[in-house]
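Notebook entry, structure prediction.
Reason for the run: the old model in the group folder had no record of what sequence produced it. Starting over properly, with the input documented here first.
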Amino acid sequence: MATLIPALNQCLPRMQSGEKRVARRLEEKLEDDYLLWYDVAIGQTGRHPDFIVLHPRRGILVLEVKDWKSDGIHRIDKNSATLMTHDGLKEVANPFEQARLYAQDIASLLQKDPSLVLPEGPHRGRLAFPWSYGVVFSNLTRSQFEGARLGEVIPSHRAICKDEISESVTPEAFQQRLWEMFPWVPSRPLTLPQLDRMRWHIFPELRIGGAQLSLFEPPDAEATLPDIIRIMDLQQEQLARSLGEGHRVIHGVAGSGKTMILGYRCVQLAKVLQRPILVLCFGRPLAEWLEPYLTARGISRQQVNVRTFHAWCREQLVTFHAGLPPQGLSSSEYVEQLVQRVIHAADRGLIPRGQYGAVLIDEGHDFQPEWLKLVAQMVTPETNSLLVLYDDAQSIYRHGRFSFRSVGIQARGRTTILRLNYRNTSEILQFAYHYAKDVLTPEDADEDGVPLLLPQSAGRHGPPPQVVPLPSLGAELNYIAGHLQQLHSEGLRWNDMAVLYRTVDIGDAAIQQLRRSGIPFQWVGKRAPQSALKPTEDSVKVLTFHSSKGLEFPAIVIPGLGRPSRHATDAKEEARLLYVAMTRAVDRLVLTGSPEALRATLPSQRTPP
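New structure, fully documented this time:
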């Protein structure tokens, strides 16, 4: 069965009857290696072909579907047609000309990529695969097509008729009709990298930057073609395009693309919803990365409000005059009262429910059950659009296990699991899991529960993580400064590096060392609350383990492992925190610490300085 994107059940409500039949035949009669897209925009043209068909051994084909009947066609020429309707004569474009223009748009996008054109021979510079277009007439039989003399303006072999898309037609006969539309047959199939490059050009909204949310240039910005394409895989694209209304939960391991899917979903919802959309995160840095991502795609703050949960709570109390907690409370007491006051005000009707057209929750694993229950009430019943992204393995603010149903999230039958980790190299992922495996024990749960998922590597490889034992924190930070300078001399931007630390004293010492070494940095954390994360500023980011959640960087360094701490610590929670920190690294990971601590925790992973 071919892969249709979006999924058929999400397409059906907006399909004409003929499109439904064609979609079912394409799915049923084509093999697994066919890819199909329905009503998806091409590049930045705003044009939406009915169907795009892509096959590695055939090429790419655009199909337009028309439900015309023989007695309704008044006139047709190469450019337009006049139809008899209930409201009189209506002039429309010739669907064959429509399909041709769509196919040419696609070919023009792909022609720019040297990897997709023939490098030599008599056809040098042409696309290395055929592209074509055609029309499906869902209510015209072949004899009616010929009787209406449509073949004079639409080549007969570029048309498929009603009797050729019946349920009884054989797969071989159906595919033959498609193949006859192609002008030639390639001698070799498209490779997987070529298929990804084709999707990268045709669907720029699926592109991924060097880091998960670092593609801040608008999707239509002209840029040098990258050597390595990073794009949503087919499972991620299928999921992103197929998310319908109602409550939905995505369980995904670290690096599986959850936040990327959330960003895509925001852009799509903003195009169709009149009410504002609310995006809630736990950590401030992630919220600060999401905002410019959306801004670069033309989404205003009025359309999509990105907030941390506690900032949103405070905003609600101020907006609806429900009263802030009194001054003089400790930080933990203040935020606890902040949340409770919002819950009580919503229960009393002081804070209205149903304020938003959609609510999307990133880092749902760090939300308390009562927070989720509160937020679920903020979606208008008109759309009932709620999306929760969850990974219990990354939960660093522990709470008891619960069911989504118990907090008002009705996601049974609308739950998806993403197990593949695309962020980290296999070496980094295996290293992090080996360290934290005692706290990452998989737990089974029914669909309504909260499973603890183990990550699976997508198979990308890189250098093994470095574990460097050194006698003092000063020696560690001196080594780290030299390492960052070496990476920069090799071509890595400062912006691609981050120093993650567990305690404030380590962060403070790291800042001093970076300053002495002349390395540009941005310190984001409690000691620098006025400093919002600036993702595009070319500087090394210095963050706590907690603040790094949801972010990623090509190179991560983590100093201070095993150094004394003034705070009581729980070994399992510390392991979970370090796991989160290590899995922020996309390509390179360096950890430094005391020799004794590293021997105890990572005895088989030690690397000499």
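Summary: The longest strand covers residues 553-561.
The old model has been moved to the deprecated folder.
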